[in-house]
Amino acid sequence: xxxxxxxxxVSWYICTIAVVPFVALRMYSRWTRMGRxxxxxxxxxxxxxxxxxxxxIQQHMWNLGLGDMSTVTPENFKGIMQMIVPGSILYVSSxxxxxxxxxxxxxxxxxxxxxxxxxxxxxxxxxxxxFLVIFFDILFQCYPYxxxxxxxxxxxxxxxxxxxxYWITIFFNIFSDAxxxxxxxxxxxxxxxxxxxxxxxxxxxxxxxxxxxxSIIRAYYSHKNETMLTCTVSMVETAIAIIAxxxxxxxxxxxxxxxxxxSSYGKHYELSSTRRKTMDPNRxxxxxxVISAASGSRxxxxxxxxxxxxxxxxxxxxxxxxxGREKIRVxxxxxxxxxxxxxxxxxxxxxxxEQAL
Length: 357
Description:
Elements: H1 6-34, H2 39-63, H3 74-82, H4 84-108, H5 115-140, H6 159-188, H7 195-206, H8 208-223, H9 227-246, H10 251-254, H11 281-286, E1 289-292, E2 297-300, E3 316-320, E4 326-330, H12 342-348, E5 354-356
Antiparallel strand pairs: 1-2, 3-4, 4-5
Helix pairs in contact: 1-2, 1-9, 2-4, 2-9, 4-5, 4-6, 4-9, 5-6, 6-7, 6-8, 8-9
Protein name: Rhodopsin domain-containing protein
Subcellular location: Membrane
Family: Belongs to the SAT4 family.
């Protein structure tokens, strides 16, 4: 490798720098709409910080001669091997922070008390278990750590331990990505919306497939002991994961937002498996929305507590049917509203429907 991997080092910085504006826009969007940041936002920030830390470690390893291991001195080799554990922990922590952030985001889109909440709680628990397994395996697969750079054949790491860590990381990483992608896409497929809009929303989630592809490529180069290429693909994988996690919060910049004026948020809808229901005006009023027949408009009277949140991918609006009667049409609808009163929240949430007054 003539340039000792300089081109790959440049790509590390490109990946890291590319993430920053997406994270900044996500935080700006969330703050302006909600007035605060949620737990998933802090997890995305954590993922970005881990990515930056991993960049620093990989740069240090390259300075010690990672680009051409055949010329590395014993002292520099020791320095490179000392960075394996912290670098691996930062890599895994960044990816798992993104996974947790996505699950918390999807959970906010589910109707409180529904089966989806249970599913996401189970997924969060499983994600925590897989992270702890990988974390402790990284720490203790080769202990004491000086075995990593020992020249004594009888005092070196067990190759089987490295293989176990390799397969555990690959399996848990790809399997969890597939689950996290499949859950929201399955729910989006049941939404009552135009095919173009449905594909647009599903496409945002489907970007996670690029993360899986990156994971597979990384596994290939890691298996061949191509350390520089493994580091490069790791940076690409993590950067794509963070950017993909930021896109749902930037919905209005991707698939456009409603232009219905100050009350464009209107009624709040959530992801659920409830079927189409017809509601009378009295029930609508009880759930937080007031319909004005004279003006043909709808005023939202929902109240938010300081700990509430509002996440949306899609909007609801008014339309007039062929019979001249007003209808509330859900064009693109995945929104959530959290209030202190759980019963009020559940009644105010109706997803995937077209309601006729």
